[in-house]
Amino acid sequence: RFQAVGDDLHVKNGLLIKTGCVVMPESLRNQTLEVAHEGHPSSAKLKSILRARVWWPGMAKKAEDWAESCATCVTNGRPEKPTPMERIAIPSAVWDTVALDFNGPYLKFGGIYILL
């Protein structure tokens, strides 16, 4: 199955390595995709995340399919451009200005959001 890339393969510390990336066994590929897509990156970003660490035949197509079929990504969509950061004026007195930040979802903790 790996004959086409045989020259690029070697074993290091018990792991099969292809050009610096761990060759992911089929039994761990879905779990790998789930973890890599936890922050809901686009399919291009997901492929980039995976390519930096792991490899398996057909990985790019599988990553595209995974991101495009993610229910959260499909429901929420992707903004065209991120909202630019704005400068806030320096407050003139204590409690003159209050800032809040909303962060999440944290899937490891049941999809909760945090208000900071």
TrEMBL record:
Residues 25-76 form the Integrase zinc-binding domain. PANTHER family: INTEGRASE CATALYTIC DOMAIN-CONTAINING PROTEIN (PTHR37984:SF11), PROTEIN CBG26694 (PTHR37984). This is RNA-directed DNA polymerase. GO terms for molecular function: RNA-directed DNA polymerase activity. Coiled coil: none annotated. Signal peptide: none annotated. Its EC number is 2.7.7.49.
